[in-house]
Amino acid sequence: MRFSFALLFLTFLCTCVRAQTPTPDNYSQEKNSEKMMGITDRQTLDEMMFYVPGIGSSAPTDLLRQNIKSYMMPIRKAPNARMEWAYALTSALEYYYNLNNNYKENLSPDYLAMSLANQGTQPNMEDGLRFLATQGTVSAGIVSFGSVVIPGAVYSVPKVKISNFGYRFQRDTKDRNKIFEVKKALSRGNPVLVELATPAGFDRVQGGTYLPSGPNVETHFLTITGYDSDAETFELRGSFGRMWGDGGYVRLGFADFGKLANLGYVLIPAP
Length: 271
Known about the structure:
The chain is of the alpha+beta class. The protein is 35% helix and 18% strand. Strands 1, 2, 3, 4, 5, 6 and 7 form a seven-stranded antiparallel sheet that branches. Helix 6 packs across helix 7 and helix 9 packs across helix 10.
């Protein structure tokens, strides 16, 4: 009798413990894809960040300086400041897309901007990154530069997408860490998209070196294509046309970059 009572009590206790333990279904639910976009953990991003064979390298000379400008498509001019983010974003995506293609394809920044505007949002870089990961963009041959409408042909062509994107640095990142993270990405052959706070008149810069002066009153989106540790400069690609800077590019000192750069993104291209 005593043995039967003990066995009954043990069975009851185990049942209670099982009832309080979460079922596996609570953990097997797939997380919302929106929450998974935009990797902020640096170790995770380092593991997922693309390595471009033949461009990125751990050789000492490549760690000292790196530049992927020659692999980028020609400079294009955004029609207005509101389109800078879209032009910078598609130029970075073109870089990955054309690496393995014998032809050189222009991708449409206008499709990105119009698609997001049609969704009722004020488009920005982060919106564009999420849209590229979920929807993608199309060739500029389908939605040309300067288009004001999206043609029906976009629904019958494949989209160019990214798998994800990561924050190489954020606003509260220390200046020296911003510089380090950008150099790390470029040394592996990855362009870095940057949101830059600048004094007035940045879109009228002339010459190869930008020396900022005055209060930061403007925000611009550019692509970092190279660095030189000896000269302590980054090379940035703008969307202001070939008459801006030095053929569409400017060099910015590491110290000034650390102060002006707010956000830095890197794309994780689709397989």
